[in-house]
């Protein structure tokens, strides 16, 4: 897998709402399918609600290809940071919230792959996702779309 595919992906926006309002919407992970172009659903797999260590089944799609992912909530800092590790790919999906003043919130969405992608991901990306570099570009564009949809949901 090339270094371009392993780069940290990033998107950000400013939401015309407080960090608490953004947090309340963002942490309803059942709504992730409304916002993300690739994620269809995020379903909790263990009892206990939103908490570090919670497992989620992610259902993703790209064109006709649909696949599951296992995600483990890794960071939960109310009104500041949310992150989960996708164990099937090696990616960490990070959401950071910062008070931007005047009742606004800056939201940064990042996707590093701290230890590189998994062997499974290295095989699947070229075969079913249009190549690793192209899929990384799609993911980054999708992250911007996700943020825009989240922003609109919060600002309603």
UniProtKB/TrEMBL annotation:
Source organism of the structure: Nocardioides fonticola
The protein's name: SRPBCC family protein
Any one Pfam family match given in the protein's UniProt record, by short name: Polyketide_cyc2
């Amino acid at each position: 897998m090339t270094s371009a595919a392993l780069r940290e992906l990033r998107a950000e926006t400013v939401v015309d709402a407080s960090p608490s309002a953004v947090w309340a919407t963002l942490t309803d992970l059942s709504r992730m399918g409304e916002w993300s172009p690739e994620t269809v659903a995020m379903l909790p797999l263990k009892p206990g609600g939103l908490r570090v260590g919670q497992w989620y089944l992610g259902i993703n799609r790209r064109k006709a290809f649909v696949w599951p992912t296992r995600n483990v909530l890794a960071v939960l800092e109310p009104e500041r940071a949310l992150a989960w590790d996708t164990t099937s790919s090696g990616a960490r999906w990070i959401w950071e919230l910062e008070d931007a003043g005047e009742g606004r919130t800056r939201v940064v969405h990042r996707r590093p792959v701290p230890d590189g992608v998994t062997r499974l991901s290295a095989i699947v990306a070229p075969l079913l996702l249009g190549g690793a570099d192209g899929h990384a570009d799609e993911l980054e564009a999708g992250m911007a779309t996700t943020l825009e949809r989240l922003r609109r949901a919060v600002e309603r």
